Amino acid sequence: MEFLWIGLGVLAFLTAVFFLITYVCYRMAFYVPDRDPETFDAGSIPEGKIYEPYREAIERWTAETKAMKHEVFTIESFDGLTLYGKFYEYKPGAPIELMFHGYRGNAQRDLSGGVQRCFRLGRSTLIVDQRCSERSGGNTITFGVHESKDCLRWVDFMVKHFGPDVKIILTGISMGASTVLMAAGHPLPQNVIGVLADCGFNSAKDIIKKVIKDMKLPVEPAYFFVKAAARIYGHFDLEETSAEEAMKKCTLPVIFFHGDDDRFVPHEMSVINYNACTSQKKRLVTVPGAGHGLSFPIDVESYLKEVRAFFGPEGSYQE
Predict the structure, then answer these.
(1) What angle, rounded to 10 degrees, do the helices at 147-162 and 175-183 form?
(2) 38 and 241 Cβ atoms separated by less than 8 Å
(3) pLDDT tens digits for 271-284?
């Protein structure tokens, strides 16, 4: 009997340790606390020395975009969250980029340069605060699993709001790029004419394992706890879908951008997505010397040239 109680005690201890570790993993990887609108700081640039050379440009784009006339839209996600987006109109009838920001980012900070780029290209844009960001609801980031479903909701909203002739380009940076790639694996209305994916990862599994390795932790046991944390506390399956798998079903034109000096999301991940893509029209643009999310700031004119050439007249406003 004594051995039974000892065994039960050990089991209870190990169970407690398991749930403690998974909870810590959930808080680190997925959890976002409730946001106070008074504390929003959309003007800050991402952390890291690589962004310092572009601070002036990023802050200028953010200030200019915040001052531009825009309309605020809201939708409800499939699981009942209120999601916010800001619409910047170039001209009535112009194609619209539906744009998604990166992991723990926000639309104003990550996508103000994208708004400026869209206007240079003769496009309107709807920049979205993803779930868990700024005023949008939610406390769990799902690395594109649920965010891609939100993207589909935004597409439905745009077709209803702007009419059956609206042209939509799905655009994202970092996790936002993976989000739109995952969405592109679903059936979409013909209004969606293409995808622009900038420095996205091929799967949540691979990017999380890469981060674990960077932290010098044992990859397989650590990933086991992270995956369990997503299921137990986040209530989602981290491997339910991936950008790479979605690309195997994609028929839309897709242009991929990725810097070859990206040390957060390796360039190779866009190569994987590109190779998996079954679209008859696809292009991978590798930007020399660009770090994570810096392909546009490092060479604005070349970026614009590539996008114009890829989408042609259909992707810009025509008088």
Answers:
(1) 70
(2) no
(3) 999 999 999 999 99
